[in-house]
Structures are given as structure tokens and as C-alpha cells.
Amino acid sequence: MDVRSQISMIFHLDKCIGCHTCSVACKNIWTDRKGAEYMWWNNVETKPGTGYPGKWEDQEIYKGGWVKDGEGIKLKGAGKKKGLLNIFHNPHLPVIDDYYEPFTYKYLNLIEAPAADDQPTARPVSLITGKPIDIKMGPNWDDDLSGTPDYARNDPNLKKLSKAEQEAMFQLERMAFYYLPRICNHCLNPACVASCPSGAIYKRGEDGVVLINQDKCRAWRMCVTACPYKKTYYNWNSGKSEKCILCYPRLETGQAPACMHSCVGRIRYLGNILYDADRIHEIASVPEDQLVDKQMELMLDPFDPKVIEAAKKNGVPDSTIRSAQRSPAYKFIKTWGLALPLHPEYRTLPSLFYVPPLLPVMASVSDTKNTEQQAKIGEVAKVWDDKWLYNTTTEELFGSIEDARMPMEYMASLFSAGNTEQIKDRLKKLMAVRIHRRWTTVGDISEEKAKGALKEAGLDGKMADEIYYLTSLAKFDDRFVIPAAHREQAIEMLEFTGDKKGSTGFGFKEGTAKRGL
Q1: Topology given in CATH for the domain delimited by 355-477
Q2: Is the separation of the CB atoms in 510 and 214 below 8 Å?
Q3: Among positive and negative, which fits the CA dihedral 43, 47, 50, 56?
Q4: Between helices 461-468 and 420-441, what is the axis angle to 10°?
Q5: What are φ and ψ of residue 437, in 5° steps?
Q6: How far apart are the C-alpha atoms of 341 and 9, rounded to whole Å?
Q7: pLDDT band for position 487 (50/70/90)?
Q8: Domains of the chain: which residue ranges?
Q9: Nearest 10 degrees: CA dihedral of 474, 477, 480, 481?
Q10: Rg value, the chain, Cα
Q11: Residue 210 pLDDT > 90
Q12: Is the pTM of this model over 0.85?
């Protein structure tokens, strides 16, 4: 058993308000320079929608991730043989139009324009060519379902729905959307690492953060093809590939990454988990319908004496084990079973998990005595109408989840490789916590109903209160449990290898010891 530590993240989609503060914080720190103008290491998409870059989820276009090959797996569009064939011409790379041509405005025109009869304007100009352009695309061009015919209706996840179901999603009275923030997943089985001919991309041993060594990168761009989430970018100015580094200089000083620290909705959580690296290939190779459950198996119980012993034998510090025991990521993923990975069918075993959104329902409830009351209120409000709750069985309450405005098949296409039962299980738990808190704080639901809902969802009162606390009332230190960096080990490693310069990944020319991290 090869026990290692991996930084893992949770994004709670019920709490995201789509403000893009996270994106701006990341942009200002890491990608506000020449050649990186079009890069958004953190971006927030509206679902349904095609996202950024356009249709990044359609691997028939971009050939990203892994595919099953007999008893094992192989890269879909990269690898040694394919890399050699495509080394000078790679047809599966996204082009600038798939992202957008970065632009700014000639603001000085507003100030310096001579007096005239018409109002001066600030014309948009390309940040690549410096010439005026007509803006046709942006990193969040389809925000809040804008441009729905061209974007939302072309979402690749809609292919699994019938035409009738697709049309129903865009009827005004049923229309619903939610936000999907994305960063690099820092996967356990990263396709970008496997695809790099130069060996420039690597996972840090102490926390699993995936980095690109800028000294070794030779701009083959196989990593751009291989990453199914399209979170590796090519800097046209420096001739190097770049990606999210999870703000590791901040992590090493006990601070949360910039996108997480600035999050207005407090949707983000970070903590480390312990996993068995010996089983990565085995689990990444299982049939598609087993991927989520098997990835959960990969994560080890940090309280298990055998796991602790194996971790210590493998050099995992005591402080890292203790932080794994307090990790909010472990609670959301394993203890409570609330979070799911994004597109597990790519077989990269991502370390970023999402709590799916509990969207409004549009269900009509049967066998209810209070018909006059039902007629007065809207369909959405029925779930929380006091008298309706008293006259409704637990089965009817949970039955409404299947009639959510966002079809279960759509959510399953995103988070569970098509398994709707796994989505339903998470939504039932979220609904059960709401019912429990309604009984606790308002008292207009019977105790029997509240306990029945918790029992059916596989929770108890204590667990429901813990979920409520961490999702609603948690302090900073509860949301971000960051393992100690152990600077002394980094110094020892540099002294042992004689590496005076260091190989710290993106953008840093000095070694770790010199930087005082």
C-alpha cells in the first residue's frame, strides 16, 4: 500500500452566485501578462452552456483524457506514438477562436478625443495584434444563458436527452441554470503528465499539485490536447505551456489559494486526503459505471491505524495525517457522500469534487387533501408550503427530486458518468438536511417526517447538523485545512541533490530554500 497525501477541493454548487470574483483574483495574480491574456486558470461557466473553450467537453473534437484499452487505459489523443505522428501538426488543439481573442478598449479616446458633435467611443482592440476588432466571444460569453440558441442549446451534455426533454429545459416557466466554476483538477491520474514528451509536467510528491517545469517545457503542447478539461494553456509569447498551480506559494505559507480566499459565496473548501497510489491504474481501468465508486475506494480512512502506519512508513508527516483527519474534503466525499467528480469518464481521477445543486422542482403532488391551498401557490413553492409538508409523505417529498427543472440525466452526464442514482442519492441528502433544519428551526414539520427523511437519505441528526454547519456557518479554518509545508524537508532535498537553482515549476527562477518557502 503506497499511501500518499493529495490536496483535494470541494465546490458547493448550491452556493455559487456566479460573481466571477474568483476568476478576477486569479487573473490579477497569475495571468495578467503578455501571452497569457486569453488564459483563465479559474473560470465560471453557466450550465447548460458550451463553456470555455467552446465545447471543451466534446472529446470527439479535442481527444482529451483516457479511454479503456483492453484491461488497461490509453491516452485518447496523445501519447508516444500519436505524439510523434502529430508533433508538427496537431489537429486536436483548440485555436484562439475556441477560447476568444483577448481584447481591451482604447480608453484614452474618451479623454483625448477632440471636441465634436458626436460622442467619442473606446474602440475594442486585440491584445495580440493591437488592431481594432469586432468582439465575438469572451471567457463567459454565455453567462446567465445569454446567447442561448448558440451556446446553451449546443451543450454536449444535452446529447443524452431526448429532443422533447431538451425543449422543455428552455421553456420560460421551466428554465433553470446554475454556475460551474472550474480550475485545474490536479488529478491523481493526469493525462497531461502522461502526454508530455519532455517530462516537464509532474505531480509534487508532498501534496499532488500538478506543475509545469518551465525550464524543461519545449512547447509540444501535447498537454493541451491530453487535458480533457482544457486547463493547460500555451503562452504564445514565452513559448511555454502554463496552468493553474493551485497557488502553491500560498499553500506553503498556510494561506488558501487566491480564488478560494476571495470567493464571495464561500462555496470552496480545501483539505488533503490520503490515497493508495498502488491502485491508481487498476481503478482508472474499471468499467465506466464503476468509476465513481472505485475512486471513492481509492481514498483511505485517515483514522485507520493500518493506514496511519503505512503513511508514516512512506514518509507522510504526522501533521499531514492530522490535517487529513480534519479535512473538509474527506467529509464531503467519503463521510457524507455528498460530492462527485466532474466527468469521471475521462479517467483522470480528478481531485476537485462538486456538490450538485438542489435546483427547484416543478412537480405536481398527488393524494393531498389541501387542494385549495395548492391552487393558490406556485409549483415551486409547494415543497416548502407548511400545510403541504404536513400532508405529504416522505416518498412524495423525495419523489419531487426526480422532477427537478434540470433533468437528472443532464446532471449525471456531468458528475457521475451517466449514473442517475448517484445524483439522486446526493440530492436526497441535501433535501433531507433542509427538512431537518426546517423542523429544528421553524418547527412546522413533524419530527417523524424529519427523522424519516434523514433515515431514508442515510443520515442522522448529528450528521445533518454537521453538514449544515460546514455549508452555512463554517469559519475560514473549517473550510481550509492546509497541511504544513515542512520547509526543512525541501531544504534537505535541495542540499542532498545539489540543486542550487531548484525546479519549482511555473514562473519561479530561484529555488524553494532561497525564496524562504
Answers
A1: nitrate reductase domain fold (1.10.3650)
A2: no
A3: positive
A4: 90
A5: -70, -30
A6: 10
A7: confident
A8: 355-477
A9: -130
A10: 24
A11: yes
A12: yes
